[in-house]
Amino acid sequence: MTVYTVRNGINERPYVGVQPFRAEDGDRFFGRSTESHDLAALWRANRLTVLYGASGVGKTSLLMAGVIPLLDPRSAEILPPGRVCHGSTFPLAALPEHNPYTVALLTSWSPDEPVTSLSGLAVPDFLRRRGQRTDRYGHPLPVFAAIDQAEELFADSTHPNRHRKLFLDELVEALDEHPDLHLLLSIRESSRIDLAPYEHDLGRASPAWFRLLPLTPEAALEAVRGPLEGTNRSFAPGAAEELVDDLRTSEIVSAVGQRSSVIAEDVEPALLQIVCSQLWEALPEDITVITSSERRTYAEVGRTLAEFCGRALAAIADERGLPLTDLRLWLQRTFITELGRRSTVDEGLTRTAGVPNAVVRALENRHILKAERRSGSRWYELAHDRLIEPIRRLDLTALGPLPRVKPAEYLRTAAEALAAGELALAQKQAEKALHTSAATDLRLRAEAESFLGNIAYERGEPTEAEARYRAAAPLFEVLRDTPAVARLLAAIGHSLLAQGRRAEAVDTLSAAAERVPNDLTVQTELGRTLWHLGQPRAAIAVLTGVLAIDGNAPEALRARGEFLADGGDAESALRDLDRVRRQQRPAVRAARGLALATLRNRGSADQEIDTALTEAPDSGPVLLYAARVAALDGDLATAADLARRALAATTPALPPHQREAALKLLNR
Q: What pLDDT does 157 receive?
């Protein structure tokens, strides 16, 4: 007899394990009905709602499978839940300078739209471009937008982050400009304090807060029994109750052997899913009624959680190049006291109890640890008392044979590492994906090569980025994925430009533009490269062609406005730049300052130049535009000093034709 469950014509497992529930999993999402309705009501009633809770408590599942199905798409516009970070295999060098948080969010809000068409937009631009839907009476429909795992914004909260500030400013502007926008942020409880400085601007009044707690015993029982509806399996009387009780009950053993039991008031959703998923997978097909005896035989809670913890530790040790035994002993010594209870440890600047902070956060991501903020510090402890016994008794024999990691899983881990800013780990995992993939799996190999190109691009290694992108391009060529090849050619062109190989860059970008003539971002980047090569007329002609297709293309407007200002056509430059609400890039802001100064609007010009110099004090173009403004004012000494600094600047350096302009200022 085959045991199965069928939903929408697709065979599925009733329990999701450690993965979050998806929107289509609503019919097997149990135990969160009250929370789903309460959070949906808050989201409808407030402009800003913040969902927070510990790692593994089920925030993503609640949002995806509980709340969103309660929203009526006929009376509201519902965007797919977004993320602000992603370790994409899209060749990032193909994009113009962009805010990675914004691009990641808009890509997830509009997954069917090419990344290249989103890269020049800010959040308010994106919402404005979508237009406003109305009901049959002409009233505007509310827009429900969510950002899941918003703690990714603060992954490195000890350092200032210009992109983060600009992104949050975009959210504030979007809320101000779109009164029908209802924004929901889902964030870990330990990162809630990081959001505090921005609460007032985002919420204007006070945002609505919703704390998600673990499951009550009654809700846990629903989560155990409910998913089996529609299958030909069920629990015998008392078996599900015993499972829930087992998930709540912890055996505590002190250093001197004293034993006691602790019964928790709640159940961790992640641990429940791990045990139930293991039970479903391990049961023989001919068992349709699950008794207590069979449950203990095939998914005894202590053994199952020990195996889960062991595999998580083994994966982290492998990822980080750590001895597994050392990591296991550290976990046992650090987080279990001599009395057999949970211990809390505060996070240090770079290491926690002697282990790198990145390892501790990896344990949090895998639901072994949880974190909370107390007295300005992040404190860690085991995710639940029910993990004390499995971790205390954990040794290598509890693991059994580890499953072979699939190449796609290595690439997924690499993406998570890149999103967290861990470039070394991301590179290591992507290389594993490449080395373990089959020679015939061309797409995965191409994506891994492109991903490694992105890592090199992030590190400022254009030669290595070029090599990786070149390795990926012929693989996509064999797959006949013309857009992917074109994007890689564009990325190669930018890598060549960063190496100073401008003529080759133009040829490569021209080839990319020929393959995707309707991709306005590729066309815009070709225009930029022509300008860097010292061909401003050709550059402006290409950008004018782009704007003939889309007159509001922000990147084309920024680029043409800057180039027109550089060429002395101040009025035309301002016509372009005044249509772009956000300049963002210091060079574009400084070019606007130059155009204003040319038209004798010195007050506004000085303000733009000062801001640009503050944001990019070592930018060659910014310094040159500032020098030209000083020269227009007759301050030749300041102009010469700025021109000298522009010639020495490296981030970025001046292109050849602008170097000539800087030298002319010096020769004055």
A: 47
| Strands (DSSP E) found in 232-314 | 234-235, 249-253, 259-263, 289-290
How many whole angstroms separate alpha carbon 75 and alpha carbon 290? 43
Q: What is the pLDDT of residue 204?
A: 63
Q: Which of 21-25, 254-258, 538-542 has the lowest mean pLDDT?
A: 254-258
Cα–Cα distance between 127 and 506 in angstroms, integer?
Answer: 34
In this prediction, residues 355-377 reach a mean pLDDT of 90
Asked if residues 253 and 391 have their Cβ atoms less than 8 Å apart, the reply is no
Q: Which CATH superfamily is domain 32-211 in?
A: P-loop containing nucleotide triphosphate hydrolases (3.40.50.300)
Better pLDDT: 156 or 454: 454
Mean pLDDT of 508-519: 89
Contact 627, 639 (CB under 8 A): yes
Q: What is the pTM of this model?
A: 0.85
CATH superfamily of 535-668: Tetratricopeptide repeat domain (1.25.40.10)
Pick 304-398's CATH classification: 1.10.3470, 1.10.10, 1.10.12, 3.40.50: 1.10.10
Q: In degrees rounded to 5, what are phi and psi of residue 290?
A: -90, 110
Which helix (H) or strand (E) is 381 found in, with range? Answer: strand 377-382
235 in Cβ contact with 225 (< 8 Å) = yes
Q: How far apart are CA 629 and CA 635, in angstroms?
A: 9
**Average pLDDT value for the chain:** 89
Task: List the domain boundaries for the chain.
Answer: 32-211, 304-398, 535-668
